[in-house]
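FORM 7B: Structural annotation worksheet

SECTION A. Query
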Amino acid sequence: MEIRRGTLKSFDSGAYTATLQMAGSLATWLQGVPVARNIPSAEMVAGRTCAVILFDPANPQDAVVAAVYG
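SECTION B. Predicted structure
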């Protein structure tokens, strides 16, 4: 498991998932990443920094947005 920083690009409030750009990579975007339900949808604004937990770093789809800040 590893925790990485990302930038929120979009948020789907219906599915409660996000599209993220991972820090340090212009080309790596993760789509359909689940967002922790304790984060209000009003906080999920494009451009905010987020903490992403990758349960399996070899599988970037096995992740969750745990916090937003900035």
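SECTION C. Observations
The mean pLDDT is 94. The first strand starts at residue 2 and ends at 12.

SECTION D. Sign-off
Analyst initials: ____
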